[in-house]
Specification:
Blueprint (H helix, E strand, L loop, with lengths): L16 E11 L2 E9 L11 E7 L5 E8 L9 E10 L2 E9 L5 E8 L6 E2 L17 E9 L2 E10 L4 E9 L6 E10 L1 E12 L2 E10 L5 E9 L4 E7 L7 E8 L5 E7 L13 E2 L3 E6 L2 E6 L1 H4 L2 E2 L2 E2 L4 E7 L2 E7 L4
Antiparallel strand pairs: 1-2, 2-3, 3-4, 5-6, 6-7, 7-8, 9-10, 10-11, 11-12, 13-14, 14-15, 15-16, 17-18, 18-19, 18-20, 20-21, 22-23, 24-25
Amino acid sequence: MRSNSTLKYHYHPEKGWLNDPNGLCFFKGWYHIFYQHAPQSETPWNIPMNWGHARTRDFLHFEELPVALRADMPCDAGGVWSGTAIEKDGRLYLFYASVDAGGKQTVSVAYTDDGLTFVKYENNPVITEYPFECDGNFRDPAVFCEDGRYYLVIASADSANRKGLLLLYTSGDLFSWRYSGVLQEYEDCRFCECPSLVRYGNEYLLSVSVCPYNADHYFEVMLGNFDGTAFTPRIRSHFQKGPDEYAGQIFSAPDGRAILISWVSGWKYQPEEKCIGCLSIPLEITAEGDHLKAYPVTEVRHLVKDGGIIDSYVKETYTDGGKEVRIELLPEE
């Protein structure tokens, strides 16, 4: 099996397929990065997906760890798909889209006390049925806590009305969930994917990947107000503008920074003999006036030289306060 060994600063596993970042968080002194992973395959979707796992203290040096979650329960026999993580009382809970052998998408939970060993909840899945607005697209749970109340955003679709949907659930204990309604919707859209919801100062950041019917997919970040039922955007930004960056996830660092990591698939420009797939350079999101800005996090900023970060054949483009910034990642001399 080939290895994507030329990349130095973009995380990728030693071997195998990688896509969406999952469960991004800080736990027990480490930044934990989970991701969609097929260790024995270089092509997507031909075997059930797992959650790969790595950790870092500085976003420069990554330790690849054993696969965290495998497709080993009836509810996830068809794959352990994307999701998020949340800490409660010193325990880290991983929420993921579980897909059974028949293709039904539900929501399941696993947990860890040390960040290294993982146990799936014995009563999985915790959300089993779709609300009436939704079709079979029901995945990528994003969990968030506010004032002791838990909220879960699900990516979905209303195919009959050609709408992509973000659905909202609430819970008091992370296991019993009640449907609250549609949080956001997108017209003329096949489905939404990979949301995240985090607090940013006195407002909230909501991100989503959107797949329209007659246009390329795009990644949207909104800043606005969330009152526990509705999200009202004040700013909408599409600052991830790379040729194929997708499935971005935002999480809160211990110092309050909002950090974004996306999947860079490289389909459009990586040589065919390379193993496709890596994760983006982490970007810190900030708000100034009516603009959302994004720039490589402080830990890697010293690598930015002459408008580029030193690495190989990956291209990333984002906007910084309305100004487009392109990172050309070139081989080291």
